[in-house]
Design goal:
The chain has about 500 residues and is α+β, with helices and mostly antiparallel strands. The chain has 4 domains: about 120 residues, HprK N-terminal domain-like (Udp-n-acetylmuramoylalanyl-d-glutamate--2,6- Diaminopimelate Ligase, Chain: A, domain 1); about 130 residues, 2-Layer Sandwich (Beta-Lactamase); about 120 residues, Alpha-Beta Plaits (2-Layer Sandwich); about 90 residues, Arc Repressor Mutant, subunit A. About 45% of the residues lie in helices and about 15% in strands. The protein contains 17 helices and 18 strands. The strands form 4 sheets. Strands 10-9-8-13-12-11 form a 6-stranded antiparallel β-sheet, sandwiched between helices. It has a 5-stranded mixed β-sheet with strand order 2-7-6-5-4. The radius of gyration is 33 Å and the shape is elongated.
């Protein structure tokens, strides 16, 4: 049978007396533990008895009051202080606060070792501890009983029932609970608690964060590879058991690690499939079967975004799409990140919200034939090319609205225009593995400044001079002629629009 604070005080051999909080002396003690830190409530939880020599108890009156308030908010059964040891004088305001909040404060004679109190509590709680061990075993069995590839909601449902708490995993922009997954913005309660966790004053933040004295909620950080937060929200007046929550966090971390590995494998296979489709290296019928399995069997769109070499902006995109149950294929190639998505507004919304605010996105027209994937990719690239001139973040393909009134209105016409002017340069670069076309582009973008262009290309100025002379020879155009510069510049723009040149 568990022991209460009043029953502990009534044992003469323990030499312990109650000095405040007598109104809640009927509190049941689940565990007794020594903690000399200045914020013990970050480490102990509901029903646990704090034992201290007083090292962590502050001397200032406001700090003593906060010590009691935070301990009470954490649900501690009481605070045992070694009498005439290391504690400063206990102020009247501290004791009055303990009376008001119902936090028992006890003094123990210096000759009584804390281990005597701990053993007394442990002996009285033997039966409860057996039940707790059985619950711990059940928590780990939940992971074993989960089917392969099961969603995290299927794991959180029984775990929430086991603990009698609402368990929520917040991962980036998404929250997961027993009811499934949803955008964090759609759950005001969880959003507010996450804001409290983000604003926690301690740096580094403690392993357990108590989110306000009123909510009773607790936040635990989940480990990488995808950092997340586990929230435990009480369904009653009982505070979350921190010890059991650590076991729950371990189980969830294992599930997330397995899920992340499965998703990464699916992403890699999807990337290979996307590449084979746009390279025309797979039979459309076979490709359609695979797309059906991935939720991409009806009407699709292709979206593209510019991506620098050191960019990791799409690194977690497949997780965001998987969390929302959105089928997808992702591929990065030639400085462009590509996504094949269902033609659904929520899919595009999830894509855009997961990318940095500075990312620009081009979107193709909807299509249903696998053979139309490459034309759709060119449409998306054209839309991305239009985005800067339109000063918008998301640009949809519009064949009659070019980024320049002098550029052709269709992709095939852009490709013909680009090859007519740049054809000799493209052939030369392909044969010699040279960089004439990129050099021409940079030279024109820098308004024919030798110094700035050479700096961007990371070459000596004389090397750039040689390249420009070679360009003039191959194209038959002179870079000191306004008419020839206009031809070359529009050809570069057309090449980027149709995909011959990376944007």
């Amino acid at each position: 049978m568990a022991i209460t604070v009043s029953e502990l005080v009534a044992i003469p051999s323990l030499g312990t007396r109650l000095v405040a909080g007598a109104g809640r002396a009927d509190r049941v003690i689940s565990w007794a533990h020594v903690c000399e830190l200045d914020e013990p409530w970050s480490w102990l939880g509901d029903g646990e008895l704090l034992m201290t020599t007083g090292i962590g108890i502050p001397s200032a009156v406001p700090a003593q009051v906060r010590y009691v308030e935070e301990s009470a908010a954490a649900g501690l059964a009481g605070v045992v202080i070694g009498d005439r040891m290391r504690a400063p004088p206990l102020t009247d305001r501290m004791l009055a606060t303990a009376d008001r909040l119902g936090l028992p404060v006890l003094l123990t004679q210096p000759e009584v070792p804390f281990i005597a109190l701990a053993r007394t509590v442990a002996g009285a709680n033997a039966r409860e501890e057996q039940a707790r061990l059985a619950l711990t075993e059940q928590i780990y069995n939940r992971l074993r009983s989960l089917t392969a590839g099961g969603e995290i909601g299927a794991l959180l449902a029984p775990l929430s029932a086991d603990l009698g708490q609402r368990l929520v995993v917040v991962d980036g922009l998404t929250r997961h609970d027993a009811g499934g997954s949803a955008l964090l913005s759609e759950d005001p309660e969880v959003s507010a608690l996450i804001s409290l966790a983000a604003d926690h004053p301690k740096h580094p933040r403690p392993a357990v964060m108590r989110l306000g004295p009123g909510s009773g909620a607790v936040a635990l950080a989940l480990p990488p590879p995808r950092p997340a937060v586990l929230l435990a929200i009480p369904r009653s007046s009982r505070h979350p058991d921190v010890g059991l929550l650590h076991h729950v966090a371990a189980v969830i971390a294992v599930h997330r690690s397995i899920s992340a590995a499965d998703r990464e494998r699916a992403r890699r296979l999807g990337s290979a499939l996307f590449a084979r489709i746009i390279d025309d290296a797979i039979d459309p019928t076979v490709a359609l079967d695979e797309l059906l399995e991935r939720g991409l069997g009806v009407t699709r769109v292709v979206a593209v975004a510019s991506q620098t070499e050191d960019s990791d902006e799409w690194g977690d995109l497949h997780h965001h799409l998987d969390d929302q149950g959105i089928g997808h294929l992702l591929l990065a190639r030639g400085g462009i990140a590509m996504a094949m998505l269902p033609d659904q507004e929520d899919a595009l919304t999830t894509l855009v919200s997961a990318l940095p605010a500075t990312a620009r996105v081009g979107i193709s027209e909807p299509y249903d034939r696998v053979a139309d994937t490459r034309p759709a990719l060119l449409q998306a690239r054209w839309a991305l090319h239009q985005a800067p001139a339109a000063s918008v973040r998301v640009s949809r393909y519009a064949p009659v609205e070019g980024s320049s009134g002098f550029l052709p209105a269709s992709l095939p016409d852009n490709e013909r225009a680009a090859r007519r002017v740049l054809g000799p340069l493209l052939a030369y670069d392909k044969e010699k593995h040279s960089q004439l076309v990129p050099s021409l582009r940079v030279f024109l973008e820098e308004n024919r400044s030798w110094q700035r262009a050479a700096s961007r290309l990371h070459v000596h100025k004389q090397t750039l001079v040689y390249r420009i002379e070679r360009i003039e020879q191959l194209t038959g155009r002179q870079l000191n002629s306004t008419a020839d510069v206009a031809d070359l510049w529009l050809a570069i723009q057309a090449a980027m629009a149709c995909g011959l040149l990376a944007i």
